[in-house]
Every structure is written in C-alpha cells, then in structure tokens.
Specification:
Layout: H1 2-18, H2 24-40, H3 45-61, H4 70-85, E1 100-106, H5 112-126, E2 131-136, H6 141-154, E3 158-159, H7 167-181, E4 185-190, H8 198-211, E5 215-221, H9 225-239, E6 243-247, H10 256-265, E7 269-273, E8 281-283, H11 286-294
Parallel strand pairs: 1-4, 1-5, 2-3, 2-4, 5-6, 6-7
Antiparallel strand pairs: 7-8
The protein binds guanosine-5'-diphosphate.
C-alpha cells in the first residue's frame, strides 16, 4: 500500500515538477491526483477532500506558483499537512498514578493481547517499569492462556482468576495484587467481540467507570480500512479513550486508517504494531508515517 500511495503521489507531484510554468490548473490537477491516491489508500472521502483543499490554500498562500522550486515546495506542504492530519507530534502514554492503570479495548483479533504483552515489554525494558498484566476475558479461557504465554515470554507476571466471571472484580483484584507485589503499571486486557455489540460495550464501559484507568487505549487492526474508523468511533463514543494503537502495519496495510481515525475521533495514535513478535512495537511518529506514505 505504502509504495503504491507514495508512487502515485510522486507521479502526481512529478506532473507539477515537469511543467516549465506552474499554473493554478496544474496545481489543481496535481491535487486531484493526490486526492485519488489518498482515496486508494482507503482514506475517507471527506477527509481526502478537506485535506486537498487545505493543501491548495497553503500552496496558494505560500506562492507556490512563483516559487523557484514549486514541486519541492508542494511536496513539503503535502508532507507537513499529512503530518498534521496524523497528529503532529508523537504522544506519550500517561504513566502517572501508582500504579498507573492502562485499559486495553478493541475487537477480538485486533491484536489486544499481543499488544498488551508488547507494551509491558516496552515499559519494562525502555522505561524501567514493573508491569503486571491482568487477564479480564471471562469468555475465552484460551485468551487467558495466551496472556500467560506472552507474560512468560517477556518475564512479566500475569494476574488471572479463572473462577471469577466478573471482569470488573478481576480488574480490581488485579490492581490490588499489583500494589501487593510492587508493580507500578497495570495493563488490563479485556474481552473483545468480532463486531461491536451492546454487551461488550456495556462491559468495557463498566470496567472503565469503576477502575478509572489513567490511560484507555483502543487497539485496531490497520488492515480493516474504513471499518477501523467506524469501530474507533463506536468505542470512542462509549469510552472517550486516550489513544489509538494501530496494529499489523507490517502487512499489506491500508495506511488510510491512520489518517482517517485521527481525523474522525481526534485522538492521537500512540503506538504501532509491526509484527507478531514482542519487540514489534514502535512509538507512532506522524512525520515518519508521512515520510513512509510519501516515500
Ligand atoms: P486479540 O483478540 O485482540 O487479543 O488479538 P491477538 O493479540 O490474539 O492477535 C490476533 C492475531 O494477530 C494473532 O495471530 C497475532 O499474532 C496477530 N498480530 C497482533 N499484532 C500484530 C502485528 O502488529 N502484526 C502482525 N503481522 N500480526 C499481529
């Protein structure tokens, strides 16, 4: 996807560079191509349209038509706008609170459990934290097993209680356990469903209300395109989450999700998942992502 979009943008901007004389018509044509490239990358239509309008205004405002290197200036404007659209600066997660409680939300299969492990590993190794993972999926015993496997891999304790079918009380007991063992970050992995449904939403809303996490993260599979945006909106309406985790960016992903989600829910993307291994986690830098998209 990225090569594709970057190639297309490159072509679009090349048209502009190739013209001896830059006219408003060339700029308009180029922007049309840019818009098409964004749509192909699964960026929402309205967002793509408003993006190109902003770029056009900036281009005219910065006198791109009379600039000595109009192509380069256009590329810079497009890149800067793309960076802004994805949030501008990188955003940290909130680690205040003792312990700091991080609640993971998202659909089943989005990569929540994997990411919970990656985040615990990251906080342990890069931020010298002592994390505790808490398994709150009371429906799928396999999910609890999976978190234990992950915990063992990275040397992080996992709290679970297979007899308890109440996720709120498991989360509370997990936090209590963290205090007892001196863990300073608690990562709560919750149950997901295959699609947004009321029971799941009520459950996560309940956990959220009772434990009042410092940080609520929404995990989404970047391969799901426009669906990712709709899911993000549904979760944000209920949880007013603090940040987004985009997983599976290593695959043939539709990078449009990164752009659209930020625009629709106006919450920062904080981390990306780039593989199945515990080390495949990166802080999300909007400018790096823009570079990757533009090539
Ligand atoms: P959950 O149901 O939300 O807890 O999702 P899981 O953590 O079980 O992940 C579902 C599948 O996606 C698993 O096979 C993971 O190995 C895989 N997965 C998770 N994150 C990534 C990622 O960043 N890249 C790739 N390629 N696979 C991932």
């Amino acid at each position: 996807m990225f090569d594709n979009l970057s190639e297309k943008l490159d072509k679009a901007l090349h048209v502009l560079k190739g013209h001896g004389q830059i006219t408003e018509i060339n700029v308009a044509e180029t922007l049309k191509e840019v818009r098409r490239a964004l749509l192909d990358a699964d960026v929402n239509f309205k967002i793509a349209k408003s993006f190109t309008n902003t770029v056009k205004e900036k281009a005219l405002g910065q006198n791109v038509l009379t600039n000595l290197q109009p192509g380069q200036l256009m590329v810079k404007i497009v890149k800067d706008e793309l960076t802004q659209l994805m949030g501008g600066d990188a955003e940290e997660i909130n680690l205040t609170g003792s312990p700091s409680v991080i609640l993971m939300s998202g659909l089943q299969g989005s990569g929540k459990t994997t990411f919970s492990g990656k985040l615990a590993n990251y906080l342990k190794n890069k931020k010298s934290k002592k994390p505790l993972l808490v398994a709150c999926d009371v429906y799928r015993p396999a999910a609890i097993d999976q978190l234990h496997v992950v915990g063992e891999q990275i040397g992080v304790e996992v709290y679970s209680d297979r007899e308890n079918k109440n996720p709120v009380s498991i989360a509370e007991a997990g936090i209590k356990h963290a205090k007892a063992v001196g863990a300073n970050v608690v990562i709560i992995d919750t149950a997901g469903r295959l699609a947004v449904d009321e029971v799941m939403m009520d459950e996560i809303a309940n956990i959220h209300k009772v434990i009042k996490p410092q940080e609520t993260l929404f995990v989404v599979d970047s391969m799901t395109g426009q669906d990712a945006v709709n899911t993000a909106k549904a979760f944000n309406d209920i949880l007013n989450f603090d940040g987004v985790i985009l997983t599976k960016l290593d695959g043939d992903t539709r990078g449009g999700a990164a752009i659209s989600i930020k625009s629709v829910v106006d919450k920062p993307i904080k981390f990306i998942g780039t593989g199945e291994k515990m080390e495949a986690i990166d802080v999300f830098y909007p400018s790096r992502m823009a570079d990757r998209i533009l090539g």
